[in-house]
Please model this.
Amino acid sequence: MNLRTFRAAKMRDVLQQVKAELGPDAVIVSTREVSRGLLGREIEVTAAVETRSGPASGPAPVAGPVREDPFEQRLAPLTREIEALKLKTSSMGGDEARVLRAEIRALRELLTTDGKSGRAREDLDALAGRRELTRPSRERVVALVGPTGVGKTTTIAKLSARAALIRSLKVAIITTDAYRVGGEDQLRIFADLIGVPLFPVRDIRELPRVVATLSGFERIFIDTAGRSPTATPDIYETLDALLKIRPTEIHLTLAADSRPETIDRWVNCYGRDHLDRLLFTKVDEARDAAEVVRAPVRFDLPVSYLSFGQCVPEDVVEANREVLLRFAQRGLQREGVAA
Ligand SMILES: Nc1nc2c(ncn2[C@@H]2O[C@H](COP(=O)(O)OP(=O)(O)OP(=O)(O)O)[C@@H](O)[C@H]2O)c(=O)[nH]1
Ligand SMILES: [Mg+2]
Model:
């Protein structure tokens, strides 16, 4: 038996390699995702073929019905190949057959997911049209608002570090998350590491006054306490204070795999007209991220940044159209973001 391992970014490319190198009788032994350097992922397929010569013994693949969808047309030969492999395992017994069947199931799942992504990409391209999906942050004062635990504080640390250390700007951080145990400490550690001053604001109504005292700073980042969407009085209080220090850019911060109804609820909670940007975090954890394109279109609210990990300051990028579409299509990790 000739056992070989193949790798490529896409499952169909690996399968093409398998077919080209080992021929139509190749059997998939295992498939897995492997990391490619720091930035990407690849599919690794181990395939085997009997080394004996002679005609293939398995039943010939049966031609499927003609399909209209161009993606399904491309997928059809692979689907047929999987069917043929499945037939082959039905005549086998024991553990070997069980393992092989599990692998075939995994392979089918991967192919279907890839197929859906391909279609999603076409849909999202059409949906996005010529609309402005992204817009860089421009204002001197930037505030992040949104649900608890999405990564607001971490993102504030990343953005402050980029502005202070890379762009050499005079940066100040304000936290209004001073009442929660640990809320201020978390940011103080980052601020000390970056070497920028941190101004805690214990009473949110004091925020405009504190900002007014910071006229010597070129960039001011405001971290707010995470809210539950039912805590509307708190949300309004924060919003009210932020609106008094216009021009402030308010970025609604959300996890990249948020469901549409969650995003709608949050945008409505703050009021679309009070928001300037969407900022998506946890891109690295998202499997389905179509909302990073759909939401900016739905609300005409461009995306500023994408955060894709816990590391400060490197795991954040300024969003751009191509990256957003690529990521929304694949919904996968760093590959779409950092490339
Ligand atoms: N995987 C991943 N984790 C992240 C990302 N951003 C933040 N985190 C992690 O998410 C957790 C919560 O992050 P915080 O920055 O404290 O979130 P927050 O929105 O400030 O939370 P609250 O202040 O409690 O509302 C921490 O463990 C972070 O390290 C990201 O882009 N990807
Ligand atoms: Mg926080």
Remarks:
- Residues 148-154, 177, 225-226, 281-282, 284-285, 307-310, 315 surround guanosine-5'-triphosphate (ligand 1) (CB under 6 Å).
- The radius of gyration is 25 Å.
